[in-house]
């Protein structure tokens, strides 16, 4: 993974943390909010990979979709915090990682438009 784009590595790391958090969720939340959050993260990763390999004319579309997935992921993590489903400190660290991913994504989008 060391030769991957840094943004891909960051999203991959976020997914690993989310997977660990979801193991500790109550069963009814694990299969609803937890599974949905993991799916959103994987979708974000998928759109970033598509942008990486897309021709320049199509990169912006993939990146805009990735931005939408990132924003959705932020809302879902806010739910984790408000419903007290996980450690607040760990969630704040995840939010900071998502903020960094957002900056990287914004810079990438600016460079292709």
Describe this structure in words.
The chain has 113 residues and is an all-alpha fold. It is built from 4 helices and no strands. It has helices at 6-23, 27-53, 56-82, 88-112. The two termini are 27 Å apart. The mean pLDDT is 94.
Order of helices and strands: HHHH
Portion of residues in beta strands equals: under 5%
3D shape: elongated
The total count of strands amounts to: 0
| Number of helical elements | 4
Instruction: Output the radius of gyration.
Output: 14 Å
Task: Let me know the largest β-sheet.
Answer: none
What is the terminal separation in angstroms?
Answer: 27 Å
What fraction, in percent, of the residue positions are helical? over 70%
The whole-number mean of residue pLDDT values reads 94
The SS-based structural class is: mainly alpha
